[in-house]
Amino acid sequence: MPYLNGDSVPPTAEALMRSRYSAYVTENIDYLKGTLWPKHQPGFDFAATARWAAESHWTGLRVLAKEKGDTADREGTVLFEAKYLSGGMLQTHREKSRFRKKAGRWFYVEALEE
Fold first, then answer.
1. Cα–Cα distances in Å, from 34 out to 40, 87, 93, 108?
2. Closest CA to 111 of 85, 89, 78, 88
3. End-to-end CA distance of the chain
4. What's the confidence (pLDDT) of residue 23?
5. Distance between CA atoms of 32 and 21, rounded to whole angstroms?
6. Please, are residues 99 and 17 in contact by the beta-carbon 8 Å criterion?
7. pTM, two decimal places
8. What SS3 state is found at 66?
9. Could you give the angle at the alpha carbon of 42 between the alpha carbons of 65 and 72, nearest 5°?
10. Beta strand 57-68 with 89-102: parallel, antiparallel or unpaired?
11. Calculated CA dihedral for residues 41, 22, 4, 111, nearest 10 degrees
């Protein structure tokens, strides 16, 4: 919650990824937009993201791997699986996410192919 309410910023790419998962759980769509790489923010689909977050019952997050993304790094990746219920069925969102640091803050940049 300190990240979601703006009291502090995530120190690593993994911490940002975990906080973004929490933002989906709590439907904090402003946080999701604000932690998206600035170049991509104008195209952020607020309504679709809010709808997906609201229609999903998030049940768990598992970090599978990470590369770089520590406090001294400028880039990093995190491979994760997020489980959620949607339409009465258990779903898994698996993604290798790319993160980049700008002005001391981590941002989500894009999903990469595994």
1. 10, 29, 21, 10
2. 78
3. 30
4. 96
5. 9
6. yes
7. 0.94
8. strand
9. 35
10. unpaired
11. -30
Own/partner pairs for 34-42, CB < 8 Å, 24+ apart? 35/106, 35/107, 35/108, 36/107, 36/108, 37/100, 37/102, 37/107, 37/108, 37/109, 37/110, 38/102, 38/107, 40/109, 40/110
Instruction: Check residue 2 and give its pLDDT.
Output: 87
Nearest to 107 by CA among 62, 41, 29, 47: 41
Q: Which residue has the tokens 């703006």?
A: 6
Take residue 30 and report the two structure tokens written for it: 């402003």
Within the chain, what is the greatest distance between any pair of CA atoms? 42
Over its length of 114 residues, how does the chain's per-residue pLDDT go in tens digits? 789 988 899 999 999 999 999 999 999 999 999 999 999 999 999 999 999 999 999 999 999 999 999 999 999 999 999 999 998 999 999 999 999 999 999 999 999 998
Polymer length in residues for the chain: 114
Q: What is the pLDDT of residue 6?
A: 86
Question: Which residues, other chains included, contact 47 with Cβ-Cβ below 8 Å and sequence gap of 6+?
Answer: none
